[in-house]
Design brief:
Structural class of chain A: alpha+beta
CATH topology of the largest domain in chain A: Heat Shock Protein 90
Number of helices of chain B: 5
Helix content of chain B: 25-40%
Strand order of the largest sheet of chain A: 13-12-11-16-15-14
Largest sheet of chain A: 6 strands, antiparallel
Distance between the termini of chain B: 29 Å
Distance between the termini of chain A: 90 Å
Oligomer: heterodimer
Strand content of chain A: 15-25%
CATH superfamily of chain B: Response regulator
Structural class of chain B: alpha/beta
Number of domains of chain B: 1
CATH superfamily of the largest domain in chain A: Histidine kinase-like ATPase, C-terminal domain
Number of strands of chain A: 23
Radius of gyration of chain A: 44 Å
CATH class of chain B: Alpha Beta
Strand order of the largest sheet of chain B: 2-1-3-4-5
Strand content of chain B: 15-25%
Order of helices and strands of chain B: EHEHEHEHEH
Number of strands of chain B: 5
CATH architecture of chain B: 3-Layer(aba) Sandwich
Number of helices of chain A: 25
Shape of chain A: elongated
Chain lengths: 705, 138
Amino acid sequence: MFRLVAGMEETLMTEMAWRRGAVENIDIFANAEADTELADLASDSVIVFDLTGNIRYWNPASERLYGWPAIGAIGRNLSDMSSNPAFQIAQWQSLRQEGRWEGPVERRTLWGGRITASVRQTVRCNADGEPRDIVEYGRGATKGSHLSSAPNADVHRFAAASWALDISRVRPLLDRMGDLINEGAAAELAQQPDWMDELLEGTRIVNVNERAAHLVGGHVGRSRMIGQPVGAFWPRVGRGVLAELIAAVAMDHSPGVITRMRKLASDGVLRDPVITAWGSEEDGRPDIVFVAVNGATDDDRSFWYLRASEERYRKLIHHLPVALLQVDASRMAPVFEELRDNGVNDLNAYLDEHPELVDFMKKVVRVTEVNQRAVALFNGTVPADFIGSVGFLYEVSPETPRRIMLARFEGRRNYTEIMKVRTFDGRLIDVRLSVTFPAPSERLDVTLLSLENITERLRTERQLHQFETEFTHAARISMLGEFATSIAHEVNQPLSAIVTNGETSLRWLSRDNPNIAKVEQLTARIVSSARHASEIVQRIRGMAAKHEPARIALDLNQVIEEALLFVRHDIDAKSIHLSARLACDLPIVLADRVQLQQVIVNLLVNSIQAIAQESRSVRQIDLATYEDGEGAVTFSIHDSGPGIPVCNLDSIFDSFFTTKETGMGIGLAICQSIILAHGGSICASNHPDGGAQFRFSLPVLPKPN
Amino acid sequence: MDVFEAPVIAIVEDDEAMREALSDLLQVIDLPCHTFDRAETFLAALAPGTFDCLITDVRLPGISGLELLQRLKGMGSTMPVIVVTSHSDPNTRSLAIAIGAHAFLTKPVATEILLQHLKSAVRHDVSPGGGDGGNTDD
């Protein structure tokens, strides 16, 4: 029944003997870490216990064989694990007499079953020849085994990640929960998942084995996990299960070791993981809870590969220069499913009637992880500041959660918007929020929120916009100055008519037989002319006023007529012939009236100056408007001037580019910036018939329906 | 020229309000007039002896006021031409006078001054409020 230890163990023993020789009088398992390490690597169970049966050392293979993790086994008595105390006493006597014993033993396993192991026990002596402790090598009995182990024991052939946890700090919480349960209010607990986080944050790690550290410790390492909250390391999957198990173990005061097992969803590292928890049997340690997670890994390579890739991912996330929040929205999935099952297709309408669902979402969707950039964005101190309900994010953007829910309900993979958030130190910042939802097939339901701080960008944009508005305004004022004569003429015209009509009226009135009917007619004309003058003044004032650009529906032809007001006098004075072929029924454009006038006046002035430069017999400006059939209306101006030198065509819209001795060269640059701001385009070219041609197009306002 | 017959005045002015205002002014002092919105239509209506005086704006679509004046002089017309304009610049004034304008007046025109120039142009009594039987209109 007993088989000799395999080659590797032989080597191991040789190694250990050699070491013992080298470090005489030293308790190898207590002090020589190198030897412990070798035993750790053994594929068979290696256990060391003292003469009273107290376990001193328990290697990973023992964990695999019996299920009990080292943390849970060391300090216990081996007899606790024996399922046949009588047999063990007989075996014990034999061992003490002969110094060695080998044969089958039946032991209790962690998962509540029994296992038969073939063991070889050897008593070790100290330098004085006194028995010191017993070393046991063992492996699971295979052939001829008459005692069955747990039915699914092979699942646990791989070592557990094991934890010893201290729950003393969460006793008050557990007591409150106990009261709730006693009052029959357990359902309330389910609605308040906060207790889980509180429990896991308050439960401290007393010890973990290397495997647990490998699995979830990340780059922290085993030693630095100790003393930390278990919540800081426990994988997101199964947090609820762990919390429930801890609570169950802690609130159970019945005697003896009661192990509680729960299956977990596969987390990508362990296949079919099973989590087991039990209380400490030792007296005076009622606040220690042991937890073991068993599960198979496919193979070491994939295990390490997965770890490495996860580590890279974690590092990437943590060092990405974008604020990232990982949220667990899994509790919304059943809610949405239920809504669909109940025939809700229009969530928007449903939320109108049930706004409380949005509040529910803000409560149950929880932030589970954040990166450094997110901590910095909110001016927080540690990622832990963020762990909890996601509601704080939407405090100053209360409509945002609803839009996120709609996007999620519609099955979209992502959603983005610009929103405001309040940082932990009370500042309001503008952020671009991007939500990436998990695909339906992903069961982990990891939703990622990224927040990009665009406060500065928006401020810069506003400033730029302000500068642009002021610059455009300044250019208009300077333009108006140039047209002082023209403007005076335009206002003078109706004023002259008023003066003449007024004097004529006086003449009619001063007659012996005043012609009242005539005076009435003339007075009506005076009013009309005065109105006309007032309109002109208003238009000039509009040009001169500083105003925020406002887009309104405009007829481009009408804007041209208004613009001509400013230059008509100049055109006449320079004997230029102006022709305008303006298309009838031009579609409406959405634009700022004054800015559009400014563009047209600028282009007209450009043409007038080009023509005035030289004394040709043909002095002509042709204006035209037309619909280009592609959703745009075009304005074109062609002059009989000398045209644009080809080398200047590319730079003609650049600021401060000018070929004139006077002028700043901002006119065309402003034209371009105005047209671009309206979503249009502007271009300059030389006309085949000579002279320069400028054209700009503006998008047509879509007709309703 | 028959002293018992009122002289006929022609007005060329593209601005409708001003055109009507001038026409009404002449009406109140019992001077018959014809109005034209541009020089071309006036020239078409022009026949020897039709008009005794012309009041024209400088800025006109097509043929300008000064060009019209030049053409009339070129045709040997002796009809006095009063130029009324918003162009107050001295160059235009001296050019108009050089070409042979009877008077160069700046808008808004003081009625009294316009009537004085009209009077000197047509040697007709156009004194303010002249005559009792003035209610000829309507």
